[in-house]
Design brief:
By secondary structure, this protein is mainly alpha-helical. It has one domain. 46% of the residues lie in helices and 6% in strands. It has 5 helices and 2 strands; from the N terminus they run H-H-H-E-H-H-E. The longest helix has 18 residues. The two termini are 15 Å apart.
Length: 143
């Protein structure tokens, strides 16, 4: 499971669809509606927020909005729009780590997007997140 801290605009088609599916699974986990993935490290930042369900609905809303901009037809009814607006933090080194990880995928799947993004200097976070100074997040699985 990869719930990107990066803005969804950077993802290719395959990545955006995967993010939607995986974020919906995360929502099910955070709502206690499934037994799988309960201890997945990617969910810790939501669990530790104090309002995990609102955070994941906020997260999914931004993914949904980005999908509309691209002409996708994701199911809006999968997201509860009545969430309390919130912000989480993510470190600058986590954002750089994720962009490097995404670029490896894009080099193979979408070379044109890879070349465009590999020159990008300022990287935007997903709208749920505010970037702060810091190391790679402790929940990140490093190889």
């Amino acid at each position: 499971m990869r719930i990107w801290s990066l803005h969804p605009k950077y993802l290719d088609a395959k990545g955006l669809v995967a993010l939607w599916r995986e974020s919906l699974l995360a929502k099910q986990v955070l709502e206690g509606k499934t037994k799988g993935y309960k201890n997945h490290p990617q969910l810790n930042r939501f669990k530790n927020s104090g309002n995990a369900v609102d955070c994941i609905n906020r997260y999914l809303t931004s993914v949904y909005e980005n999908s509309l901009e691209r002409g996708y037809n994701f199911n809006k009814n999968k997201v509860n729009p009545d969430f309390i607006p919130t912000k989480l933090t993510v470190t600058d080194k986590q954002i750089k780590f994720e962009m490097k990880h995404l670029l490896k995928k894009l080099k193979i799947r979408d070379p044109e997007r890879f070349h465009k993004l590999s020159r990008k200097i300022k990287i935007d976070a997903h709208p749920l997140f505010r970037i702060i100074d810091g190391e790679i997040e402790p929940w990140e699985k490093l190889n």
